[in-house]
Each structure stands twice: as C-alpha cells, then as structure tokens.
C-alpha cells in the first residue's frame, strides 16, 4: 500500500501546468507515492490520459457536463489506494520533502487536516520557466497567500474523509468546497494544523486568470456555494451518495441490533435497515443466546455489511449492546431494536441534522399494533437536556444515533436487566452530551399484546425509579424544582401528519390494504344504476371515499376504494368503467386499520373528530349523497349491517356542520356516533 495518495481533480486544464505539477510530485523524497488524476469531463481527455501514463498516475475519468471540484476529488479519493490522502490542484508544485513531512505529521495526529500555506509565484514564473526547480529562487520571488481554506492542498486520512462523507457535491463550478471541508472536519473534532516547516513548501504556478465563475450563471452558483458555507453547519454531506468500497472505507454508521428468539421479526428489521437511502453503514447483530441459530436466517441477505455475533449464553440486552459497541467501526452508532422497522430515510435525516457540537440525533417514532395495525405517532420531545431526562421526557431509545466515542465512554449499565436505555440517556444528559431532534419520524415501533407483561412492566418501573433517584440525588432541592419547571416547558416536536401516512406504507404487508382511486372524466350524478353499483361494492365490504365536484358539473368526481388484491382492484376498475369513463387511476397503500382516507391526516394531526362526524344511515344512499354533495367536498361510506351504512363527514365549520346535520337527519338510523377514523 502506498504511504500517500495525491489526488488532483481537473477539467479542461492546461496540460503544461499539469505536467510541471506531476514532475514535482515525482521528484518527491517519498518513495512509492501514488498519484490519482480525477478528470471530471475534460474534452481533451485523451491528451490528459497520455500525460498521466507518462508519470505513472492512476487515471479516473467521470463523464460530466458541469465542473465540480468536489465531485472530482470524491471520485479520485474513492479510487485511491492509500489510507492517507493529499488533495491538491494541477497548478501546485511541492518541494521534495513536503510529502514525507505531511505523512509524519499525520501519523502523529491522525485525526487532523494538515495544510501547507501556499505561496504564489509572480508573472514570468509560469510553466514554461519551470523546466527545473530552483526552490531557493522560487521562495525569494513568491508571495505568501493568506491563510484561508486549504491554501492549495490538504492532507488527511480516509477515515476522516469517510466521517465527513466527502466534499460537498452541492458546491459546483468553483469555490467554497475546501473551506467547507475544513470547517466540517473541525466540527467533527479533527485538528486543523498549518505545517510550519521550511522544507515543506508549495507554490502556485503563475497563469492567466481562470474564467470559470465569471459568467452571470456561474457567479450565481459561486454565491450559492458561499451561502452553503455560511449557513449549513451540518457535518456529514452527500447523504444519497456512497463512496464505500469493499474492505476500504470505514462505515459512517454502525447499526447495532441486540436480539434473542425473534428470528422472523429480526429478518423484517434487518431488511428495513438495508433499504436505507444512506448506504454507508454496517449492521452488527448480537444474538444474546437464542434457542435456535440466527445466522442461517440472515444468510439470505447476502450482504457483506451484515455481521452476526453469537453469544453462547444469554448475558442480557445491556451486555449485548455494549459488546456490539466495542465491535463497531462506524463513526456513529444507530440503535435499532430487533422488532422495530427503520424508515428508509432514518440515517439520512439524522446525519443531516447533526451540526455544531451535537454528538448525535434522535427522532420521532410511530407505534403500530402488530395485530390491528392501528398507529400512534410519538413525535418525541423537542429538546434533549438534563431537566427533561430527569423527569422522564426522554427520546425513544430506538431512534438514537450517537457518536461511537460517546457511547464507548458511557456504555449501558449491565447490572440493569431491563430499561438500561433509560439509565444511559440520563447519564448522557448529565454529562452534557448534546443530541438534536432531526425533525422527522425515523422508526416504526412494534407493539404486540404480550410485550407488556406485568413482571416486565414492574422491572421497567423499578429501573426508571432508580435512574430518576440517582439523577435527583446529585442536585439540590431548589435546583430540582428548577429542573422540573424546565422539563415541563419542553414541548413535543411538531412533525407533519403526512409523514405518518408516508411511513405507514412501510408497515408489514398484513397490516396494509391497497386503495385504488378512480377519477371520472365527467362527474357522476347520484342516481339509478350508478348507485346500484356503489351498493354492490359496499355490500362486498369495500369502504368507499367519495369526492364531490361543485359548480355546473356537480356530482361524484372520484371514488377511493379499499381492495385486497390486484385481481380485486382490476375487477373494481372494470365494474366502474361500465358506468362511467375513467380519466385517471391511482393505486396506493394505507394502514388497514384506518379506512377513511378523508380523515386519516386529521387523525394523525391529533384533531378531534367532532361529534356527529360519523353516524349510521339507512339504505337511501342516492338521496343521502345528493344532499351531502351540495355542502361537502367529500364523504365516507362503509357497510355496518343489512341495509345500514356508516357515513363519515369531513371537518366542517360549525354553521355548515349544523346545516348538514339538519338536512341528513331523515337518513339516520341511530344517534350513535363513532370516533375512529
């Protein structure tokens, strides 16, 4: 393996300057230096390739329409063979001892960015005058460049590069990407070191000013780069990209799963982890002494990122999680319970929210009943701090993503056989570790009827009481009262109800039902044969959401119907095609437990379903729909018995609601109201 990989990104660059720069690298005192030329769409790529071969470089070509130094460097670093990376430009020359000094500095300070302050050569010292390097003369005639950004080069480890997930590829054309990389490195805990050694010098070859960034369009892009630099304080970028190569980069995230005797649920859990939009991770499953071997159940995934650790004897969930933490390679650890499901954007949302000195992130959870499919959103508390954790306002533990170094320091208390997570979060908060709410739901949390046995609940309560007592024992009575007040002021996070609906589509298949929405080219009148078709669908246990149109062409403009299979969906479409021309068909899935699509968003927003919104009506649905359609934009119908239906109305203003209730009174069969959506 080479001791250092020099990575140069370029596009349509002056070949004379490139040749001079490569000659300086090949004159280095460092043997076996690797040079990677990342050509990002040069029109003269054949000529560039010839020069790279002349100097024994690795050539990486990317087809691209727009120059991006970030993307060019990322592509080159991905192919680099060394663990140590030096990024620079094709018009920078290095003194012979520079590379060796940088390598030695990096060995002493592996978690750092090493920068040599660049010196600019004056006019007359272009590529044509540099057939030989007179380093003493170049030092005398050059002017020192102010310290900003990377000064023409930066040296760091691939581990740091992986931690930051590369140069930000939103920054295109030119400018800002180097400063941004350094700032994020420092926010992640790395040291910025300007190399002060007279034998380590770099010089910028004089050339006529580059025109890139000069056009109005490019000027706007450069301004956007500056805005990103000034306003985006996150650490990890390019979340939808992967720079991972087998046996190369350390993963950004280690997903840790402790499990015991839940093979089927574990398979669902692992599958949800593998479907993340952010793919630079490993999964560590620690089997805490299951009765049957779990590895064969997971071999079908055939993914090298998945590791299964078998404990011969059960040591408890706290030990299993600590064991996984010690084995983890990622910069961050994502805690995942074996029966829960990760939502696809969990890692992307959480990594994207970590900024400044935050050590991790948490998010909202959505509890689902594994039998009925009912959903209970829990957005979580907005702030994570000592007062909140002391009084039980803690994040859902399965949503936690935290720096590995922080978790290695605190670890779980292995004397707690249950609820050790509550104790961990209390200690983390007392230690001043900062966590941020990512602003999204990140997991589906499974609830099964036997999950809350009395003995387990008692143990959990005892552990919580012990943790709270330990936390309060460290503060005075006066301070405890202040903390109590602060905890009460910590609000729930507000997350859009639409996220719950989107998340619900990732429930296990047995909890979902397909819905098909059919929009008619011409609105249907609620009369005759058409009503017979609706009655037939209702009789076959198909709840129907009906959308009405207003104006001259009033009537039913669309219906949404639940169906159990694609065959049934096709039959429904065929049946309705016989009574009207269908303009558009849209299929989607929603929780089986929530059949009224018109009310589902209000339900998840926590909006109270008003009295009278659901009621039982008789068989005269023709007259009912004619009446409802005059005043409502939509309604819901489902069969509840022979010749009896459940009618659902949308949220209405009180005057309109009173009018509608008065007009439909003659259709009611009882005064019983139903509150479920």
What does this protein look like?
With 677 residues, the chain is an alpha/beta fold. It folds into 3 domains: 5-231, Spore Coat Polysaccharide Biosynthesis Protein SpsA, Chain A (Alpha-Beta Complex); 253-501, Alpha-Beta Complex (Spore Coat Polysaccharide Biosynthesis Protein SpsA, Chain A), CATH 3.90.550.10; 509-673, Vanillyl-alcohol Oxidase, Chain A, domain 3. Helix content is 35%, strand content 24%. The protein is built from 23 helices and 28 strands. The strands form 5 sheets. Strands 12, 13, 14, 15, 16, 17, 18, 19 and 20 form a 9-stranded mixed sheet that branches. Strands 24-21-23-22-26-27-25-28 form an 8-stranded antiparallel sheet. A hairpin with a 5-residue loop joins β22 (544-549) and β23 (555-563). α1 (15-26) runs parallel beside α2 (45-54), α15 (420-430) packs parallel to α16 and α22 (621-631) runs antiparallel to α23. The longest helix has 20 residues, at 454-473. The two termini are 63 Å apart.
